[in-house]
Every structure is written in structure tokens, then in C-alpha cells.
Amino acid sequence: MRIAVFAGDGIGPEVTQQAVRVLEALALPGLELVEGDVGAAAYRKHGHPLPAETLAIARSCDAILFGAVGDFDCDGLERHLRPEQAILGLRKELGLFANLRPATVFKGLEDLTTLRPEVAAKIDLLIVRELNGDVYFGEKGVRILEDGRRQGYDIMSYAEDEVRRIARTAFTAAMGRHKRLCSVDKANVLETSQLWRDVVIEVSAEFPEVHLSHMYVDNAAMQLVKNPGQFDVIVTGNLFGDILSDQASMCVGSIGLLASASLAEGTYGLYEPIHGSAPDIAGKGLANPMATILSAAMLLRHSYQMEAEASRIEAAVSKALAQGVRGGDLGGTAGTREIGDAVVAAL
Ligand SMILES: NC(=O)c1ccc[n+]([C@@H]2O[C@H](COP(=O)([O-])OP(=O)(O)OC[C@H]3O[C@@H](n4cnc5c(N)ncnc54)[C@H](O)[C@@H]3O)[C@@H](O)[C@H]2O)c1
Ligand SMILES: CC(C)[C@H](C(=O)O)[C@@H](O)C(=O)O
Ligand SMILES: [Mg+2]
């Protein structure tokens, strides 16, 4: 088992350290962890947020455990040197096109949500976010118009094969769950979304057992708060998925709880919390490491088919929460290390 550990910036190293402790506590056979630099930390050391050495480490491993990147001091750098390019570059270079972001309420812990507990109680959804296309990777820039005004632009596009492969991932996920798939788009305005919708409908013929529905993204944002229990699997593009997953995290309780898997074809994957480097609390030992710990569980499940070990980690997180071990993000007082201790003890 050879796993790359890219901790990154801000709270990245703090939360990753706790996830590593949990992995080590499982005494996994032949576990080898290989650290690499990413983000602002890598830029300062190597002059690039995703150095060639780091990419080589990623390629030499079976999976990546990723913390977070981002540093407001680097916001003035040319875009290709900004810390976020590390995660965008890894996703693109490694063909990590399918981002799974599950959001499930912890049984008995419905009080964690910012929704009414009876509304949140039914949340058990999976957001399948396309990760290699959309406005994220289109042509972009700032140009000068003829009349001298500056104009920023980012081209949104999806090719049909890109939609087809993420649709297949989502339909397959739905087959393993409650067989309901909601495709979220903005087809009433965007041509990119109309093609997205047409292709998702084409792919649905391959999965006759799955009930497919469509929803505009603005409505989806509203429905996630009104009645999140209606969703089983949501499939959507890169930008809409980014936004809706942060929103879903608060329906469950906190952004410090939501894990993710970014998968290529096969078993290779990158696993990271959905949150960022949280500069406002970095270095203070206040960050909730549970999202990263749960990402390590997803790593064992998807890249190593270690279902028992993955479930063991998830149960330990639930147990720690049920014991009242809660970070500041959940209104508690437990620090990063203390939460890690509690999860390790609950394994
Ligand atoms: N995948 C990634 O590496 C990733 C993801 C999102 C944002 N970012 C980057 O992170 C930086 C900060 O962005 P932001 O502030 O918009 O988003 P953020 O997710 O870092 O933080 C948003 C808010 O949530 C809180 N928060 C986040 N994670 C937490 C945790 N584990 N425990 C407790 N509280 C937590 C933060 O304190 C902050 O108040 C930016 O540079 C951004 O580009 C990186
Ligand atoms: C940091 C940023 C590039 C990233 C994204 O937009 O995908 C983040 O918000 C995420 O959710 O992983
Ligand atoms: Mg995001």
C-alpha cells in the first residue's frame, strides 16, 4: 500500500496529520506513506504549486490523501502559480474526473445541522461532480475591448464524451443506492447545460432501472434546504457541484464533516475534505479533522476495496461525535488533536 500524502497549506497539515494517525492506528499491512509538497508551501520551496517531483510521487502511488491548498498572500500571483493550481493540476493530470461527495446525516446527531432536525434527518445523498471540464478548464483571461474597457472571460463547455462518462459513473452509483438520479443543470439558459441534459437522457437508456429527473441549479439550491431528503444521487458539472456540495455540508452540520473522492478510471483516486485551507483558523489547532479522516475511509474503500476498515473509521467518527467530541465548527470546544485522539480511541 503506497499512499501519497499532500498536506498543503493552512489547516491542511493539521487535519492531514490526524487522518494519518488514524490510518497508522489500523496497522494496515505494508502501509507506506510518501509526503509531497503542494500549494503555497510548494511554491515557496520549489517556485511552483505543483512541482514535477510531487506529480512523480503521485504517479508512483496507488492513491493520494490530500489536505487543502490556498493562501491569501498568493492571490496576487499569476494564475498558473497560485496554490489552487496544485489541486486543479492533479485532477487534470491524473484524469480524476469523478468527484464523489457524500452527505449523510449522522444517526442520532440530527442536532448538528443548521436545518430543522426533522428536515435534516432524511439526508442521505451523494453528489457526483464532474471534475475535469466546465468553466474551470476553458479558455480564460482578461482582454481589452475596442472601447478600452477590460473584460474578464471564462469559457464554459462540455464535450459529449465528458458528460457521458460522468453520467455513467452517476447512474452506476445510483444502481448501488436507491436508484434515483437527479441531474442538475441550467438548461433553460446555457447551451452547455442543454447538451449535458441531452447526453444524460441518452445514457439513461443503459440504466432502465434508475429513475432519472432533472432540476435547474437554482431550484436545486433551494430544494437542498427545503427537502434534502428527496435526493439520492445528484450528478452535475464542475462549478455547480462545487457550490452545491458546500451547501450540502451545512445541511449535515459542518463543512468540517464532508469528505470526497476524486476518481480516475479504475481504482486510482485522490481523497480530500471538501473544505479549503481555512486561513482564519490555521495554525491554531481548531480545525475539525473529521472530513479528512472520513476521506481516508473513502480512500481505503475505493482504492483498496477495504470495506471493513473504511466502515471502522466511519463508525469511530460517529462514535466520537455521539460522545460529544465536537470542534468549534459544530459549536463544541474540542481541538484538532483532541478530535484525532477521540477517533483513534473509538476505532
Ligand atoms: N480543495 C482545496 O484545497 C480547497 C477547497 C476550498 C477552498 N480552498 C482554498 O482555501 C482558501 C480559503 O477558502 P475559503 O475560506 O473560501 O474556504 P474554506 O473551506 O477554507 O473555509 C470556509 C470557512 O469554513 C471554515 N472551515 C473550513 N474547514 C474547516 C474545518 N475543517 N474545521 C473548522 N472550520 C472549517 C473556515 O474556518 C472558514 O470560516 C482559499 O485559498 C481557497 O481557494 C481550497
Ligand atoms: C480550491 C478550488 C479550486 C476547489 C474547487 O473549486 O474545485 C475547491 O473549492 C473544492 O471544492 O475542491
Ligand atoms: Mg469548493
From TrEMBL:
Alphabetic keyword roster: Amino-acid biosynthesis, Branched-chain amino acid biosynthesis, Cytoplasm, Leucine biosynthesis, Magnesium, Manganese, Metal-binding, NAD, Oxidoreductase
Entry cofactors: Mg(2+); Mn(2+)
Pathway participation: Amino-acid biosynthesis; L-leucine biosynthesis; L-leucine from 3-methyl-2-oxobutanoate: step 3/4
Domain Isopropylmalate dehydrogenase-like: 2-343
SMART domains assigned to the protein according to its UniProt record, in alphabetical order: Iso_dh
Assigned EC number: 1.1.1.85
One term of GO molecular function: 3-isopropylmalate dehydrogenase activity
Subcellular location: Cytoplasm
Binding site for substrate: R91, R101, R129, D218
Cofactor binding note of this UniProt entry: Binds 1 Mg(2+) or Mn(2+) ion per subunit.
Record-listed Mg(2+) binding positions: D218, D242, D246
Catalytic activity line of the entry: (2R,3S)-3-isopropylmalate + NAD(+) = 4-methyl-2-oxopentanoate + CO2 + NADH
Residues reported in the UniProt entry to bind NAD(+): G276, S277, A278, P279, D280, I281, A282, G283, K284, G285, L286, A287, N288
Site location (Important for catalysis): Y136, K186
HAMAP family with a match to the protein in the record: LeuB_type1
Protein family per UniProt: Belongs to the isocitrate and isopropylmalate dehydrogenases family. LeuB type 1 subfamily.
PANTHER family linked: 3-ISOPROPYLMALATE DEHYDROGENASE
Assembly description: Homodimer.
Role noted for this protein: Catalyzes the oxidation of 3-carboxy-2-hydroxy-4-methylpentanoate (3-isopropylmalate) to 3-carboxy-4-methyl-2-oxopentanoate. The product decarboxylates to 4-methyl-2 oxopentanoate.
Protein name: 3-isopropylmalate dehydrogenase
Gene responsible for this protein: leuB
